[in-house]
Design brief:
Length: 159
């Protein structure tokens, strides 16, 4: 892919309010996967940080294997994009949970990801949020690369 930067950001800014919303959504959806949108400012140009201002829950369109698969319906993605037009915010990434699995993207996740977006994966063990990881898909290698979450807060910190 010519003209695409290999690393478009190094960290994801995730304040406590959207962070807690993701944790609660993952715990509530357990034992199925939760999924949703990361919303924030981004003009499409490379920058050091993806800033998440809000999150929005999404429907999991998977009809089977919902304990370890999710798909956000394309019409829902388009509706969110249209709603955000002119607001100064856009979809900067996506989040989902991994019930009783590590907070790392799966092969299925990789096959359904796009470069340039932040991907947050929440490990939920026996109904409790345990770990949150941040990743970006490398457009050259097709692998997920870890990214820092900022600020560094314990999962349950509501400050």
């Amino acid at each position: 892919m010519s003209g695409v930067l290999r690393k478009t950001f190094v960290e994801v800014e995730l304040p406590s309010t959207p962070r807690l919303a993701i944790l609660r959504h993952g715990e509530r959806a357990y034992p199925e996967e939760a999924c949703g949108f990361l919303l924030g400012p981004w003009d499409g140009r490379p920058s050091e940080r993806r800033s998440v201002r809000t999150v929005r829950e999404a429907a999991n369109a998977k009809t089977e294997e919902r304990t370890h698969r999710f798909v956000i319906p394309a019409p829902e993605v388009l509706a969110v994009e249209r709603e955000l037009e002119g607001s100064g915010e856009t979809i900067v990434g996506y989040y989902h949970s991994h019930p009783d699995h590590p907070a790392v993207p799966s092969e299925f996740d990789r096959d359904h990801a796009w470069p340039g977006f932040a991907y947050l994966v929440l490990a939920v063990e026996r109904g409790h949020a345990r770990e949150l990881g941040a990743f970006e898909l490398d457009p050259e290698t097709g692998t997920f690369e870890p990214r820092r979450l900022f600020p560094l807060l314990p999962l349950g910190d509501s400050r």
